[in-house]
# Entry
Amino acid sequence: MSISGPPFSQYLWQCAQSPEEKPGTFFPDWAYNLKAFIPGAIVAVDKRSNLKHCHATVVTDISLCCGLGEDELCKALSTFKHPRREGEWMGDDPGRLLLEFSEAVRGYISVSRLTRVLPCSPARVLIVNETVSYRRLAKTQVGKVDGVLEIGSSFGECTQILTKHAAAVIGIDNSQELVEESRRRYPFCRIELLNCFQDPLQLQRLCSQLQDRCENFKIFVDIGGERSSTAVCRILVLLDEVVRGSLCAPCLVVVKCKSLSAAAAASCDERATICNLLDWWHRCAAPTSTRQQRKWGISREHG
Ligand SMILES: C[S@@+](CC[C@H](N)C(=O)[O-])C[C@H]1O[C@@H](n2cnc3c(N)ncnc32)[C@H](O)[C@@H]1O
# Structure
């Protein structure tokens, strides 16, 4: 069998973090996406804990405040540090934004505590290099209307973060020991024993359960940052097959993989979007050894 074209081919594939970035930080060409605080944007408000945050809607038209275009504004805000103390009333200014938490509750919050929740359209595949940034996305990009699948739940650390924020979450792992331990540590989380390569039908059933119950569907994939990009690419192909044609397609797929992050950083444009996705995919998905070729049953030829 030869390598087929990229899965999620209509999605925006972006390098959210290159191997150069410090843990917990994002690729500068991409990071401004998280600071696009235009009116109506949903933002996650940091409450200084991995397990707490809330989403709110931006009310202030900040572009009127400082006269910058949207792109310039987002770049400026991504490096903005507000000098004043927390809790100080300032009114409308570029350092604080008026947010609406619910119909009756509004308040001014420092931009340094806000992360934009990426809109569901365009749908994206985001590639990160390490765990802190992966979990930062889990913490900020998931809210009360989302169903989330995490592949590679391990001890359940990230699954519990997702569970605190989303409407419904299923973590899966292929290690019985880790599944038992994570269930013991986080009894409120749903964690299933599953090797997604061996039981795609069960993977499909779990996806459907989340898709049926929630407004949006999001997927986080971390089967080990050091794993070859071939293995991670196989999971993405499988996921695409499993969810294709469903009414609630995933609007966000976050992938943690060191080799994919390096390959994405080397092939993206100034907006951190991977250029020439087809070629890039064939390079990443190709087995790097004959052993891998046998394991995945694919040749290095382009499909
Ligand atoms: C690095 S850990 C994930 C850590 C987790 N994302 C977190 O932030 O706490 C990778 C996990 O992927 C699991 N894994 C590897 N291949 C898998 C597969 N085919 N199906 C399900 N889980 C898999 C491993 O057992 C391991 O626990």
